[in-house]
What does this fold into?
Amino acid sequence: MTGITVLKIGGSIITDRSSHIPKALPDQINRIAEEIAGSYDNLILVHGAGSFGHIFAKQFRLTERFDTRGLIKTHCSVKKLNNMMINALSSAGVPGVPVHPFGNCLLENGRINEMFTSHIKVMLDQELVPVLHGDVVMDTVKGIDILSGDQIISYIADKLGADKIGVGSNTEGVLDDLGITIPAITPDTFDKIRMYITGSSNTDVTGGMLGKVQELVELADTVNIESWIFNAATPGNIRKFLEGISIGTHIRTDT
Ligand code: IPE
It folds into this structure.
């Protein structure tokens, strides 16, 4: 059995982020499911919320205050997107199973305080593909907060001792201020280049590109897990990543 791979697909790939209502991109969802069908051994999949999450999170100001209606509306909406992903995986022959962070996770001031993951290990042992997603989650300090897929991948990769992480975004990798892909980032170079990293332009309540890179650099630094940020909108890239081909920006330790 190969080591654990954690793959996040950004919400901007599987939904229309410029839409004012939740809008899925079924062709992209199906293509991604077919690419995953090529190799999904020991794979944990995490997808973003895109327009199914960010619109309601912003509308109800869920990162600032507790709101019952907003909580339920947002969670139900991201669950719908998760269901689409599960169905597409199933049609492609991949045994994806839903794991909703709202039900297995607790935040403290926006950061994961506890997340039950023992069942995820058993799912992997049974050759299932757990599919998590960005979600609204209970928070001991704030009541509720938004948990991004980016925070999930670093937490879960660390806790379950993953080998590698892939972040499928809508750019070729991490871009500098001239729009050129930065080939590699290490904890040493991050401080020098962080000011050149371009953020996300759409409605984003969870930090955009800089937030992603920060989480992954910390992970490389503390537990030596490598990651790749690449363009998941380009057909074939997800397959390449899963097959171990280096694409996009490689985030690793200095040694
Ligand atoms: C956000 O998740 C979750 C909600 C807004 C409910 P992500 O931060 O992982 O989603 P994307 O990838 O930016 O769409």
